[in-house]
TrEMBL record:
Residues 23-278 form the EAL domain. This is Diguanylate cyclase (GGDEF) domain-containing protein. The chain holds residues 346 to 624 of 633 of the full protein. It comes from the Bacteria.
Length: 279
C-alpha cells in the first residue's frame, strides 16, 4: 500500500509539474503575441430591450495563434492574471479599441451613436497601471465613448487606494463604469456608491436558467429594483433565446446582450451591423 501511495503522489506531482510548464509556455507565447501585436478584439452589441437598437459594444480580446488556432480567453486570461501579463493585454486591448473607434467615427462621418466597453482584469489595481490606462484614455480623444467593466471581486478590495484609482479612471472622462458578473459575488453594495458605479451587468449564470429557476428570476428583479433605486442602468448578458428576452423585458431590464442578437464580431463588421439595424 505504501508503494501504491508513493506512486499516486508521483502521479499528482508530475501532473502538477506538467500544468505548471503548460502555463509557463502559454505565458511566454502570449508575451510574444503581444510584442508582435498579434492579438485582436471582437465586439458584441448590447441592445436597447425596447427596440433592439445597439447602444454599446463590448470589446472581447481574441488570440488566433498561427500554430494552435483560436485560444479562448478562459484558457489564457487566468494564466495572464497569475503572471501579471494581463495588464499588458488590457492596455493593448484599450489601444486597439481606441484605434477602431477612430476608424468607425470616420465611417459614420462624426461621433459614434454607441459606446464601447472594455474589460479590466480583477487582479489588484496598481497606481502605475492606472496611470498608464488613464494616459491612453485621456489622450485618445474618444474617452466619452469608452466604458469600463470591472468585476465585483475588484470592488471588494474596498480600500481607500482602490477607490482613489477607480475615481482617477473615471476622471479621465469615460462614459460609464460597469460592474461585470453582478449577482455572483456577495458584497455589501456600499461600494456601488463609493466607486461611483453607473451600470450593473447581470451575470449570464443567472440568465441561463431564468425560465425555470424562480430564484434566478427573483434575483434579476431585485437587481433591476436596485438599479432604479440607485440610478444605475442594468444589462443582462448571455441572452440566448426569445424566452430569455421575453422574461427579462417583463422584469424591466433595459439593456440586453447575447447570442440572440449577435455573436462577438470583428471590428470591420461593426459599422455595417449598426447601419443595418438603424435603418
Ligand atoms: P465576460 O466579460 O463576462 O464576457 C462575456 C463572455 O460571454 C464572452 O466570452 C462572450 O463571448 C460570451 N457570451 C456573449 N453572449 C453569450 C451568450 O449568449 N451565451 C453564452 N454562453 N456566452 C455568451 P469570451 O469572449 O470568451 O470572454 C470570456 C471572459 O474573458 C470574459 O467574460 C472576460 O472575463 C474575459 N475577457 C475577455 N476579453 C478580455 C479583455 O480584453 N481583458 C480582460 N481582462 N478580460 C477579458
Ligand atoms: Ca465583461
Ligand atoms: Ca460577465
Ligand atoms: Ca481588428
Amino acid at each position: 500500500a505504501k508503494e501504491k501511495g508513493r506512486g499516486l503522489v508521483q502521479f499528482y506531482e508530475s501532473h502538477w509539474q506538467q500544468e505548471k510548464e503548460e502555463k509557463l509556455r502559454l505565458d511566454a507565447k502570449l508575451r510574444q503575441a503581444l510584442a508582435g501585436h498579434r492579438l485582436d478584439v471582437h465586439y458584441q452589441p448590447i441592445v436597447d430591450s425596447s427596440n433592439g437598437l445597439p447602444v454599446a459594444f463590448e470589446a472581447l480580446v481574441r488570440w488566433n495563434d498561427s500554430e494552435e488556432g483560436m485560444i479562448p480567453p478562459f484558457k489564457f486570461i487566468p494564466v495572464a492574471e497569475s503572471s501579471g501579463l494581463i495588464r499588458e493585454v488590457d492596455l493593448e486591448v484599450l489601444r486597439m479599441v481606441v484605434e477602431d473607434i477612430r476608424q468607425w467615427q470616420q465611417a459614420f462621418g462624426g461621433d459614434l451613436p454607441f459606446t464601447v466597453a472594455i474589460n479590466l482584469s480583477a487582479i489588484e489595481l496598481s497606481a502605475d497601471h492606472v496611470d498608464r490606462l488613464t494616459e491612453v484614455i485621456r489622450s485618445s480623444g474618444v474617452a466619452h465613448r469608452l466604458e469600463l467593466e470591472i468585476t465585483e471581486s475588484l470592488m471588494m478590495q474596498d480600500t481607500e487606494e482602490s477607490v482613489k484609482l477607480i475615481r482617477q479612471i473615471k476622471a479621465a472622462g469615460i462614459a460609464k463604469l460597469a460592474i461585470d458578473d453582478f449577482g455572483t459575488g456577495y458584497s455589501s453594495m456600499g461600494y456601488l456608491k463609493r466607486f461611483k458605479v453607473d451600470k450593473l451587468k447581470i451575470d449570464q449564470s443567472l440568465v441561463r436558467d431564468i425560465d425555470h429557476d424562480p430564484s434566478d428570476r427573483a434575483i434579476a428583479r431585485a437587481i433591476v429594483a436596485l438599479g432604479k433605486a440607485l440610478d444605475l442602468t442594468v444589462v443582462a448578458e448571455g441572452v440566448e433565446t426569445e424566452t430569455h428576452q421575453g422574461l427579462l423585458c417583463k422584469e424591466g431590464v433595459p439593456l440586453l446582450q447575447g447570442y440572440l442578437f449577435a455573436r462577438p464580431m470583428p471590428g470591420e463588421d461593426v459599422v455595417g451591423w449598426v447601419k443595418e439595424r438603424r435603418r
